[in-house]
Task: inverse folding
């Protein structure tokens, strides 16, 4: 954690050198006021549900819309994820059914105005092996920061699986995934968006659940 804070503080130190007319600001994109139920991942309870083989982002949490949208242009310098703690048998099941050990990274998406529910992949981070962090909240600094424009979306990219779902919300809470309409109830196909510059339609909307991640943004006006 010391290394994480050093990274962020170092960036902030540089920000202090900017002209007064262009102050940098630090924001945690995706952090919202406390809600009910508490935003903790579902595992190891039953059912233990995970995000699997897809790229997804939160659309709404209560009255908050697009909470993972960058409020202004800048650079993403780190991302944070809160993970459930699946049992040994649950880990074994997911590893077998979803293509291997739990891992995830972030992806920067940009909405394509002329095609409904279509998002272009602008950049992505390396995937992190997550099992050492099960049952914890972990923050990962980026060795190379990712530039974003105002309105870009920070998505969670999961090539295998991640116990990063909070359940039990109302229908006013939802997230969207990079799956075709016919794949909304299946994780048998790999749908994670990996090619920078590619565009995909995010057809599948999942209600009553929240993805438990956020991103740290250093922004300038």
Result:
């Amino acid at each position: 954690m010391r290394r994480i804070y050093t990274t962020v503080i170092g960036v902030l130190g540089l920000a202090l050198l900017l002209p007064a007319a262009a102050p940098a600001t630090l924001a945690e994109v995706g952090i919202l006021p406390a809600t009910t139920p508490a935003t903790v991942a579902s595992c190891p309870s039953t059912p233990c549900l995970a995000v699997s083989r897809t790229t997804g982002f939160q659309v709404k949490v209560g009255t908050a819309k697009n909470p993972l949208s960058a409020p202004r242009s800048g650079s993403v310098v780190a991302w944070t994820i809160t993970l459930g703690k699946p049992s040994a048998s649950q880990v074994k099941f997911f590893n077998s059914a979803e293509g291997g050990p739990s891992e995830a990274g972030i992806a920067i998406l940009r909405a394509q105005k002329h095609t409904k529910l279509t998002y272009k992949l602008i950049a992505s981070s390396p995937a992190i092996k997550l099992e050492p962090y099960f049952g914890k909240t972990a923050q990962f600094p980026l060795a190379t920061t990712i530039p974003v424009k105002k309105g870009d979306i920070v998505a969670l990219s999961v090539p295998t699986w991640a116990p990063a779902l909070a359940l039990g919300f109302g229908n006013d809470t939802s997230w969207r995934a990079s799956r075709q309409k016919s794949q909304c109830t299946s994780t048998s196909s790999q749908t994670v968006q990996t090619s920078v510059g590619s565009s995909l339609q995010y057809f599948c909307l999942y209600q009553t659940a929240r993805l438990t991640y956020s991103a740290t943004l250093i922004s300038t006006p």
Summary: Residues 2-219 form one domain. Helices lie at 2-15, 88-97.
